[in-house]
Write a structure and sequence with these properties.
mainly alpha; 97 residues; elongated; 0% strand
């Protein structure tokens, strides 16, 4: 493996780890779907549909993001995504319940 290819792998490592973490969160959520539904007053089916919508949205965005990355570049999208995640976490933390 040449030095340039190794540098490419190091650049991709954060994206690979983020993908693994995202998929792991989906798997970890499965056993608690019933508890989430009970806590929110929703049926098991409604929680499952919400998870399916989340997964379908992730697939659609993943397919559409390639051309955007080509036009804008990776760094602005990563920074923008991190800022959106930070804003979402802040709003979630400030929620009354």
């Amino acid at each position: 493996m040449s030095g340039g290819r190794r540098a490419d792998w190091r650049a991709l490592l954060p994206l690979v780890l983020a993908t693994v973490a995202t998929q792991a969160s989906i798997v970890v959520l499965a056993p608690v779907v019933v508890a989430i539904g009970r806590d929110l007053g929703a049926s098991f089916t409604a929680v499952g549909v919400a998870r399916s919508i989340l997964a379908a949205t992730a697939v659609a965005v993943s397919l559409a993001i390639g051309p955007v990355i080509d036009r804008v570049g990776v760094r602005p999208l990563i920074v923008g995504g991190a800022l959106l995640a930070l804003a979402g976490a802040g709003l979630t933390a400030a929620a009354p319940s």
